[in-house]
Amino acid sequence: MPERTPLISGNWKMNLNHFEATALLDKLRYLLTKEDTESVDVSVHPPFTDIRTVQTFLESEKVPIAIGAQNCHWEANGAYTGEVSPVFLAKLNVSYVIVGHSERRQLFGDTDVIVQRKVGAVFAHGMTPILCCGETLAEREAGAAHGIVTGQIHAGIDALKPDQVASMVIAYEPIWAIGTGQTASAADAQEACGWIRAKVAEMKGAEAAAAVRIQYGGSVKSSNVAELMGQPDIDGALVGGASLEAEEFARIIQFRLA
Ligand code: 13P
Known about the structure:
Blueprint: E1 7-11, H1 18-31, H2 34-39, E2 41-45, H3 51-60, E3 66-69, H4 86-91, E4 94-99, H5 102-107, H6 112-124, E5 128-133, H7 137-141, H8 145-157, H9 162-167, E6 169-172, H10 186-204, H11 206-211, E7 213-217, H12 225-229, E8 236-239, H13 246-253
Helix pairs in contact: 1-3, 1-13, 6-8, 8-10
Bound molecules: 1,3-dihydroxyacetonephosphate (13P).
């Protein structure tokens, strides 16, 4: 079975200007040891307006944290007022792009078709998509969670080759757990992530399923990360609120010490 290096990602959402971003990363680099960043991949996903500053800081200080984005457009250039090209992100050494976050799906109309295009564009420009999926509370209570998540995964990966799927990241983020303080239990999170891996195996084969990294997201904190990361099909965390504070995010990255 391939070794899946854990990936802990901080999704800052619409928080922290470029000065605040530098201050947070400056603290974070002193809190993390060489062993931390050798055993765990770490990415931060600042607002677009911070990315150039974050890139300059991380590269000049040689901090082994990958740069991520929260979204992008699917076209390389054109008359798309207000959008950001994946080409521009790649030029800033962005490694990971979150695609299909539930806030984008619910508030900004990102449909499965749009998500599919964005995943393709991220790959086309040499970056790695973090494809988000997850059900609402109403869908879960109606027993529809598996169907919803399966549909989102289908749309996101159908057009991809197995080796692309092997190299990407899928984030299971149940919407009822995002920003609510109500984390999915480790058992529920494992059940969903195991289901996702099984679906990937059906769609793209056992090798892709064994290699794809699956993150859990939704109220991840230093107090619950170790138990979540102890589950066999959970390979990382997509962290919102708790990534905005250096000490707390460092403790999450150091989940093995908990
Ligand atoms: P919280 O960690 O704030 O619940 O947010 C999760 C999330 O949406 C990460 O993408």
